[in-house]
């Protein structure tokens, strides 16, 4: 394989989230992306979630961009986040 050759359809795609991005995971918990990587299937992220006090792994489709500034979303904030 030549340098720079793409392995799969997604290999030329850029990651939606990068190190330090604040995100929503598991529908209501706030986290920070600490690692991003890609394989033939797509992008994966390690996210530190304060409410869990640990780092969890998520696929790109399991993460949303964070738009509110609290540790956990209340019901009104959850509605706004999902709008």
Residue share in helices? under 10%
Major pleated sheet: 5 strands, antiparallel
Low-confidence stretches: 1-10
Second rung of CATH, namely the architecture: Roll
How many β-strand stretches? 5
Shape: globular
Order of helices and strands: EEEEEH
Secondary-structure topology with pairs:
Layout: E1 22-25, E2 29-38, E3 43-49, E4 54-59, E5 63-65, H1 75-82
Antiparallel strand pairs: 1-2, 1-5, 2-3, 3-4
Give a quick rundown of the structure:
The chain has 83 residues and is mainly beta. Helix content is 10%, strand content 36%.
What does this structure look like?
Helices cover 10% and strands 36% of the residues. It contains one helix and five strands; from the N terminus they run E-E-E-E-E-H. Strands 4-3-2-1-5 form a five-stranded antiparallel sheet, with no helix packed on it. The longest helix has 8 residues, at 75-82. The protein is globular, with a radius of gyration of 15 Å. Mean pLDDT is 82; it is low at 1-10.
Keywords summarizing the entry:
single chain, 83 residues, mainly beta, SH3 type barrels, 1 helix, 36% strand, globular, disordered N terminus
């Amino acid at each position: 394989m030549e340098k720079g050759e793409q392995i799969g359809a997604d290999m030329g795609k850029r990651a939606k989230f990068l190190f330090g991005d604040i995100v929503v995971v598991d529908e209501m918990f706030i986290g920070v992306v600490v690692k991003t990587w890609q394989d033939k299937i797509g992008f994966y992220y390690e996210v530190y979630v304060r409410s869990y006090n640990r780092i969890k792994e998520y696929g790109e489709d399991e993460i949303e961009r964070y738009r509110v500034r609290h540790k956990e979303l209340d019901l009104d904030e959850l509605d706004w986040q999902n709008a």
